[in-house]
Amino acid sequence: MHAMMLLADGTVFHGEAIGAAGEVYGEVVCHTSMTAYPEVLTDAACKDDIVVFTYPLIGNIGVPAEDGEYSRPQVKGVVAGEICTKPSNWRTVDRLEDYLLTHGVPAVTGIDTRALSRHLRRNGTMRGAIVCGDTPPEAVLARLREEADDPARDLIASVTPAAPYVYHKGSGRRGHVVVVDCGATRRVLSVLSAGDYRVTVVPAYTAAEELLAFSPDGVIITDGPGDPKAAAPLVETTRRLLGQRPLFGFGLGQLIIALALGADTYKLKYGHRGANHPVEDLAAGRVFITSQNHGFAVKEGTLPAGITVSHVNLNDGTIEGFFHEQCPVFAVQFFPEAAMDQGAGPAWRGDLFNRFLAATGERKQKRELGGSGIVATFLPS
Amino acid sequence: MIYRENNQGGKQALRKVVVIGSGPIIIGQAAEFDYAGTQACKALREEGLEVVLINSNPATIMTDIEMADRIYIEPLTREMAAKIIEKERPDGLLPTLGGQTGLNLAFDLAKSGVLERFGVRLLGTPLSAIEKAEDREKFKQTMQEIGEPVPESAIVSDLAAAEEFAATIGYPIIVRPAYTLGGSGGGIAENPSELREIAGRGLKYSLIKQVLLERSVAGWKEIEFEVMRDAADNCITICSMENFDPIGIHTGDSIVVAPSQTLADKEYQMLRSSALRIIRALGIEGGCNIQFALDPNSLNYYVIEVNPRVSRSSALASKATGYPIARVAAKIAAGLTLPEIGNAVTGKTSACFEPVVDYCVVKIPRWPFDKFRNANRLLGTQMKATGEVMAIDRTFEGALQKAVRSLEIGLTGLTLKGIDQWSDEEVARRVGVADDQRLFVLAEALRRGITVDEICRRTRIDRWFVAKIAGIVHLEEQLRRENIREIDDELLRQAKALGLSDERLAELLSCRPAEIYEKRKKAAITPVYKMVDTCAAEFEAQTPYYYSTYGTEDEAPDTGRRRVVVLGAGPIRIGQGIEFDYCSVHSVWALRRAGVQSIIINNNPETVSTDFDTSDRLYFEPLTLEDVLHIVAKEQPEGVVVQFGGQTAINLAAPLAKHGVKILGTSIDAIDMAEDRKRTEIFLNGLGIPQTEGGAATSLEEGMGIALKLGFPLVVRPSYVLGGRAMEIVYNEVELLEYLKFAVAVTPEHPVLIDRYLPGKEVEVDAVCDGETVIIPGIMEHIERAGVHSGDSYAVFPPQGLSAEHKNVIVDHTVRIARGLGVRGLVNIQYVVYNGRVYVLEVNPRASRTVPFLSKVTGVPMVALATQAMLGARLADLGYTTGLLPEPPYVSVKAPVFSFEKLGAVDVFLGPEMKSTGEVLGIDREYSHALFKAIVAAGFQIPKEGVILATLADKDKAEGVELMAGFHALGYKLMATSGTAAALAAAGLPVTEVKKVTEGHPNVLTFIKENRVSMIINTPTRGKVPERNGFQIRRAAVEFRIPCLTSLDTAKAVLSVLQSHRSGSDLEPKTLNDYLITYVS
Fold this sequence. Notes:
Helix content of chain B: 25-40%
Mean pLDDT of chain B: 92
Structural class of chain B: alpha/beta
Largest interface: A-B, 52 and 58 residues
Strand content of chain A: 25-35%
Shape of chain A: globular
CATH architecture of the largest domain in chain A: 3-Layer(aba) Sandwich
Oligomer: heterodimer
């Protein structure tokens, strides 16, 4: 069946429908990873996006067992050069097209995705639609134009868990970590569970009091979808936790912490979506390659005094990590676990995530020794 | 100025750096090191360093006068390198860009204390890291320390230990010799007798007399990573590559795809992390290649091998991603860190990132089996390919079929000629045979109904690949039911997107290719061109590096400038080597200097011509009429240059012209006149220039008629081929008949040229002409008489045994032929001087193999002048006059280099069919010095004493006896089989007679195998009669690395060198510039 990929600026690409038939609207984003399509499709950071894969051969391994944290895709639609119909891998359980069909996700193939990504790079990320069948494009374009002015939508609510739960009981020897789940926990959770922490996961909109009632020794704000400014209650909660508990944010979590500190965030023209982003650790003077999947960044120069920018993106100079000079507040824009994989060698011990964990453990010790448990007095401006 | 930490922790200035090249092209070490070395020299000079280059290969760009500050074209021996270091006093030496040859030499210089003595630091990857990667035991230990799995293995130095290890782990076992090139001497042993054979050979080849025995993981996926690290410990992976063929076939002989196609992210990340841990643990500073075996059914993997240097794979990865690995590795060696190095592709970001691609790359090796019909075609752990092609597309199928077209093996797609005649049993049997034709056998098997499952089970090739081939076969079957008039545009578009050529479509639709082309043009089914930019369009890129695909957007803008297309030479093969890449590159540079936008089309990933900054625009495409026409249609160039891409480009001249494309330089008619035997004869007769008598036969009868007229022996060859493919000398009617009937199948479309064989002195001339002025930079004299292919001969310039009178005749003939043909550009003419008369052997209206050699030693920019002549410049205006340039006061000798040890069962005797893979140059003020240097550089180990074994054909006995007397006078002992021994004894020479192979034991082979012979002189009895005795002697010589000469002329040259030098210690290195100054001024 014929299908179209339409962009809000009126650009139309023609291809073949695959997966579920239908008509979907969403932010059109390009992802450059060559192997991680199952992970990207199920990443909550891509909630409601139409994902364009720049690598033309998608679905070569089908959908493997256990990959992806969610059993279902988070994306609205998929755009690819080719979706493999005869996948091959020992862990394959499904063909990608069947998987998309099962979950009602339309896809369009036979698209010159390089032309599409070049268009978006030049003109900026925009909304678009996948339309299967022979719908006239005019109506679709009209709807895209109308939606273009919509204020930022809060996407977190649809991907955060409904209620708190204990992820890992463990010995809790090194402390209790509460994870504010904005949708994309990634493998941070499994890293924690391997390290003698007690881990509780809470919904994104848990109020500060409620959250503190879990007696955490450290709080993590995870990655998630959309514009951080659309998550005002979470920013407020975070503001109240600053100085109260060691804090770590990654992806969307970094943007939330930045807003809580009074800094500003902005939408990137094209976004960072891929597994190849070089990030410089300014203190160590070293660069490592990170995996990223986001469309917003902390605005340079808006972080208040007392905050040190610790990491920058080598490609465009955007802020990739910072910490508070007085109290244990740490944030990175990339997926910290990808950096941990490469973390062989002593130079990585200064890594922010590890510093957060150290602060968490320290607080636990102090608490056991009868201290107040408050790590520093800190009042945001 | 670059400062670099020294061992004491302080900073030390780096001013002058030695770069070691890889020497001659051999199997396992081809043009990729010219590419790497050229990039490295440029990168180092950009940093203000003075570069001293040592390389014996004159056919390279890297040895060009402008590539380095001081260029030594000298033998790559420790003695010579030490002399150069003593003379130059460099601060550093860069060992990792000259392949295994460069690395071994650097290792030798370090171990023998030369570097320390002269205060030279090794730059880049430290010696300890090289040792950890190259020494099997240290490597295994390092891997165990960091928890990386390696297959159970043992290093043994003798056969008993090998058998003991096998007894503990069982078969199959892989045998790999340590410190060799391209896996020489390795193999998989399935049982004890195979183990004894393979391990025995491996011990012989290993420079350190060690072989590695290892549990075979044959059948697992073979995955490679290219990784880089700097001294600050920043690490990146450049590219993953997946071998189509599972473990068991050398990666140089495997079809390879990039990026990996069948790995889940989890598997990919697992191996990537492992690669990063390994490069850190080894402490490499620069690039390295890591090979993994991955179980297709679990997450188990083994680390198979690490190459701590740039390699063939890194060249492929560079071309596949656009990331210049050698350039960055050189900068790292100079002390820069990855973030400090600019990204030359985007011009904005740094070199510290991981490339992503948005296309699929397929590499296919080019094997020499078309020339060596007797060679063992089976592929295993010993590499046999001489070159490779690469293709890029947005579908795997498209890239695969483009690569097949690029191979120039006469195929239009996945169908082998005549394979439809094979029996089902034969097809089924061949599925299980891993040879160079298997890709095509798989396609045929699928056509015959063998299932994808069955093929996967028997070949252990991943289902993804087999299913893709099945998809192509299925589409072809569908197309067979269509016809050209009614075929649906959409189906045609799909066929093009999956890489079906117009020629293939014409076969399937039973029409002419031109009809397909017309139909497509009407339906606007034409390719667009996309950029290779390292970043999947995430950043604006500067590189003018393009590939075709059937997409919607074309990215190559019209520059509005004057532009010219230069056709490259495709894959390196015997007869068409790196020389033509040299010529293509120089032509492109000349165009640039003339203010013309230069556009190159080529498909060889190993070369300088396909480097992203060589031309103004690079199209990485097959060199077929269709693919070239597409580019011409898009670019609308002023013209196309066909003279520099060997026979590949020349063969496209007439078809392109027929499509209205302007061919620059010598006219199509003149090209035809030179290549058509009949027309050449008429032309030369008209000029009164004698030619070896002969004719072109289009049928058996005609052939026998010509033979009757001329008499035997005769030289026979098919017309329009380079490198003397299938050229032979026949001595009687039976041989001629067999040749015409079976060997080349003579037809009116494929005539066979038959010439009288004149065993005289062969002489060769390259000239530049603009139609009027004819510049002859020099005449080259061959040491071997006619009958040995010019590419396999030693060539001497200026000639040492040619009379002034003959030189004058040759100059006169050359000038008249060039003018007569109206040559605009280059022409190569081969002559034979026989019985005092000069005959023309052949006229080649294009650049020849000797152009780089002659350009270098004369300083005449031959290709640049030829290019200017093509653009319409007058050579007279450039200050040149007609005639032979004065001879320089030094002598240059070009020596051929062979790769016989890689190709079992190939006869090594020299004849009219070319067999060498590369060449070296010896240059000195004295002829004997130059000859000695050339012989040493060619790797010929001249024995200082010992036994010389002679087995001579009857026709050579008289001449041979005189020669042997010379060796005897120098103190060598003589050994010979009966006939030769009798002749030697009759001349009063003391000789030990040994039995022939057929005469029982111990025989001549016994002495060879027991290392009791230092050199062999064997002349084949005649042309091609299977001659067991001689063949076995020659093969044994190759297997046991004993120098073997099959031409008395070469033997005489060796003798003359021995008479004047015994050790070579009196040879002095000198830069090319030092020689040229004495000539030009």
